[in-house]
């Protein structure tokens, strides 16, 4: 239980699972006879153990109840693989998709980015097999939102990790078969997931424009900047939500950096690193959960009112990204493209 809670309480990683939902599954798993437990849930729980131990090791912890933490996380990861490999294609449900995604997180955290990229492909394939890319019209609102958020997170990781490795996306997010469309830009107040919805919209728009050439892609990115909600615009944003929604300034910086990197990449033909920024943007979901007591399912709904009381300020993100962008201005000056990035100055 300590290992599970350590993972669920991590601001920077707990977005992959809904803590309340997972703890209910975890308790049911313990209460179920061993011969009746499902391999997908067993594998997911082992993945949580492996990830939790992995990040304990990264934090300098060497022993856990007398056992070597690094050896333990490796052994649990291997055991999870064995269980996961027994799951047939199209089976395992959402738990299997979540488990594969946690595997990608574990591999990436150990420096095995190429292996993480391949595992992410497995997670996306499993998601497609169970219809996670569908509109989920028959689901409850909370279940539909869970499914949509998991799909969006997988897509953002795919876009970022593929970009960092200079590898192609595993699928085209603009494919007409993908029914999980971006939420409308206008008409919604800020939420803990809003910046990720807007980032997903950018990914879909860029993917749709790529066949028409880089010039069209740059035009689409510029249009995305122009149409972004006023509270997220840089400079001179609408700050009416800032005091009530403490994470909004951080989300604003996230979107500014994400859009700027996309424009830079398609202007300069280079690839600035995206994955760390995406992970930090996703961590805002975990941070919000850790300081509010709103029960499930309300807190997982995309546009419920933001919490008015937060016990700690948001963790600073994007500093490295911003430093990178400032240093990139020298390259922009060399090719006369600096004016295209005036919104960052």
Automatic annotation (TrEMBL):
Against CDD domains, the record matches this protein to: fungal_TF_MHR (cd12148)
Q: Which subcellular locations apply to this protein?
A: Nucleus
Q: Where is the Xylanolytic transcriptional activator regulatory domain?
A: 86-172
| Chief place of localization | nucleus
Q: Which InterPro entries match?
A: AtrR-like (IPR050987), XnlR_reg_dom (IPR007219)
Put simply, this protein is called Xylanolytic transcriptional activator regulatory domain-containing protein
The processes (GO biological process) annotated in the record are: DNA-templated transcription
- The organism encoding this protein is Corynascus novoguineensis
């Amino acid at each position: 239980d300590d290992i599970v809670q350590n993972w669920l309480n991590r601001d920077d990683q707990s977005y992959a699972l809904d803590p309340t939902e997972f703890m209910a599954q975890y308790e049911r798993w313990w209460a179920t006879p061993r011969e009746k437990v499902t391999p997908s849930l067993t594998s997911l729980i082992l993945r949580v153990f492996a990830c939790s131990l992995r990040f304990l090791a990264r934090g300098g912890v060497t022993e856990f109840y007398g056992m070597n933490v690094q050896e333990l996380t490796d052994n649990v990861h291997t055991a999870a693989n064995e269980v996961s490999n027994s799951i047939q294609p199209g089976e395992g449900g959402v738990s299997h998709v979540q488990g594969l995604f946690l595997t990608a997180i574990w591999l990436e955290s150990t420096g095995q980015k190429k292996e993480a990229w391949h595992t992410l492909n497995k997670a996306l394939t499993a998601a497609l097999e169970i219809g996670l890319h569908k509109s989920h019209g028959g689901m409850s609102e909370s279940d539909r939102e869970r499914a949509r958020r998991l799909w969006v997170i997988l897509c953002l990781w795919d876009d970022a990790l593929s970009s960092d490795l200079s590898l192609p996306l595993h699928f085209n997010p603009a494919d007409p078969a993908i029914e999980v469309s971006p939420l409308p830009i206008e008409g919604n107040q800020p939420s803990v997931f809003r910046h990720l919805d807007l980032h997903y919209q950018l990914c879909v728009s860029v993917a749709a424009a790529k066949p028409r050439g880089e010039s069209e892609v740059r035009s689409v990115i510029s249009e995305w900047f122009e149409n972004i909600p006023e509270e997220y615009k840089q400079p001179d944003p609408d700050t009416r939500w800032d005091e009530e929604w403490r994470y909004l300034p951080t989300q604003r910086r996230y979107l500014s950096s994400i859009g700027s990197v996309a424009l830079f990449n398609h202007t300069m033909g280079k690839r600035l690193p995206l994955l760390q920024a995406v992970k930090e943007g996703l961590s805002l979901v975990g941070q919000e959960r850790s300081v509010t007591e709103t029960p499930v399912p309300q807190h997982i709904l995309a546009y419920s009112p933001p919490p008015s009381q937060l016990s700690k300020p948001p963790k600073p993100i994007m500093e490295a990204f911003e430093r990178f962008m400032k240093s990139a201005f020298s390259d922009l000056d060399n090719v006369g493209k600096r004016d295209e990035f005036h919104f960052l100055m």
